[in-house]
């Protein structure tokens, strides 16, 4: 399933000699407005709110367990990924995902800015409907490691004595 959405970003004036501004995704719009990317929505002395552009959330049947965990978390989120670019607006909107494992995995990649934002109620209903149509195929089972000593064997010593040659 593909869901077109809009992304809203805030630009905060930085209190740093090395940065002019700090960008942060703040919300998702259900649907896509007829507005050019990086259009100013609101502005005051310290904060400018911008429409960053359009993205498409893709839902896959194989990831419904992760979506279900996201909705059950009590704070359903969408992860927005902005990639640095050398332009007037220093970021390009790369992707938005509803899969928390994908979102968390993207936080450690390169210089991308990855931030979770609250999932809008209409998106929660859409994702819940998708999960209902494509229920997860089984639950995750975590195996326990086989312990080194068992009841029928003698336990191995933790440390063995090692003697250096020539010293008795």
Describe it.
The chain has 168 residues and is of the alpha+beta class. It is 17% helix and 36% strand. It is built from 3 helices and 7 strands; from the N terminus they run ββββαββαβα. Strand 5 (77-84) and strand 6 (91-97) form a beta hairpin. Helix 1 crosses helix 3. It is globular.
Secondary-structure map:
Layout lengths: L1 E12 L7 E10 L8 E5 L3 E12 L5 H9 L4 E8 L6 E7 L2 H7 L6 E6 L2 H13 L35
Antiparallel strand pairs: 1-2, 1-4, 3-4, 5-6, 5-7
Helix pairs in contact: 1-3
Q: What does this entry show, briefly?
A:
With 168 residues, this protein is α+β, with helices and mostly antiparallel strands. Helix content is 17%, strand content 36%.
Strand order, sheet with most strands: 2-1-4-3
* Beta-strand segment tally: 7
Q: Could you list the spans in which at least 5 consecutive residues all have pLDDT below 50?
A: 157-164
Overall 3D form: globular
| Beta fraction | 35-45%
